[in-house]
Amino acid sequence: MTWDTITLTVEDGVATLTVDRPDQLNALTVDTLEAIEAGLAEAAAEDARAVILAGAGEEAFIAGADISYMVDLSTPEAQAYAELGHRVADTIESFPAPVIAAVDGYALGGGCELALACDLRVAADSAVFGQTEIDLGIIPGWGGTQRLPALVGDETARRLIFLGERIDADAAAECGLVGEVVADEAFDDRVDELAETLAAQSATAMRAAKEALNAADDGPTPTGLAVERRAWSGLFGTHDQREGMQAFLAKRDPSFE
């Protein structure tokens, strides 16, 4: 499949989905959001074991939603746009393999929200994060009000959203928004290395781990624990469970499916 606003490559189990609108700082149009959704479906069909979500060019990961499209939206049109953004973020969050947000440059507004939906966030030194919607007279509409507090805590999330603050990569790491910061010149290699490491793990165990971890955010603790028990026990009898444990006992590297 081909798209005008994204590129998708799948190699050795790693899918790289790149928003390819560098002249517009990779801003998210309706077409781009729909292409991301389709690209993720294609990556799943290709049995990707890890996904890298990136932005083309050196200035931005994703600078936000398309303001020129939003400016004259009616309430019903805005609702439809919100539903599309939520659907894309939910697709990232529920993708059956880990998704890495490879953030260099700006990750603002809707771009930050898509990064929040990823499993892991790696930032280049040049990265800048912000839920800056308040400056436009609106609020985050693609999950930011829910996912951001879960990562950084209530007070920090309120400051970022109420004040529209932009923070650099080090500040993002300090508050828990990203997992690691990498020098710009080493950024691509580190993201590739992380994705390759994830792709080498048991795909069935990784899918179960992601399902259980997501359940922790979706409801009360007893519900999440029930999901964990079901996911954990369901792995027994699979090739990867048998192989992983036999390899451990034999002191050799496992060969996962």
Descriptive keywords:
257 residues; six-stranded mixed beta sheet; 11 helices; 50% helix
- The level of helicity is 40-55%
Number of helices: 11
Report the C-alpha radius of gyration, rounded.
19 Å
**How many angstroms separate the termini?**
26 Å
β content, as a range? 15-25%
What summary fits the major beta sheet? 6 strands, mixed
- Based on secondary structure, the structural category is alpha/beta
Q: What is the overall shape?
A: globular
Give the H and E element order.
EEHEEHHEEHEEHHEHEHHHH
* Sheet with most strands: strand arrangement: 1-2-3-5-7-10
Compute the average pLDDT: 92
Explain this structure to me?
The protein is α/β, with parallel strands linked by helices and 257 residues long. It contains 11 helices and 10 strands. It has helices at 30-45, 67-70, 75-94, 110-117, 144-152, 154-163, 169-175, 187-199, 203-218, 221-234, 239-250; strands at residues 6-11, 14-19, 50-55, 60-62, 99-103, 106-108, 120-124, 128-130, 166-168, 180-182. The strands form 2 sheets. The protein has a 6-stranded mixed β-sheet with strand order 1-2-3-5-7-10, sandwiched between helices. Strands 4-6-8-9 form a 4-stranded mixed β-sheet. Strand 1 (6-11) and strand 2 form a beta hairpin. It starts with 5 loop residues before the first strand and ends in a 7-residue tail after the last helix. The model has no long low-confidence stretch (mean pLDDT 92).
SSE blueprint:
Layout: E1 6-11, E2 14-19, H1 30-45, E3 50-55, E4 60-62, H2 67-70, H3 75-94, E5 99-103, E6 106-108, H4 110-117, E7 120-124, E8 128-130, H5 144-152, H6 154-163, E9 166-168, H7 169-175, E10 180-182, H8 187-199, H9 203-218, H10 221-234, H11 239-250
Parallel strand pairs: 2-3, 3-5, 4-6, 5-7, 6-8, 7-10
Antiparallel strand pairs: 1-2, 8-9
Helix pairs in contact: 1-3, 3-4, 4-5, 5-6, 9-10
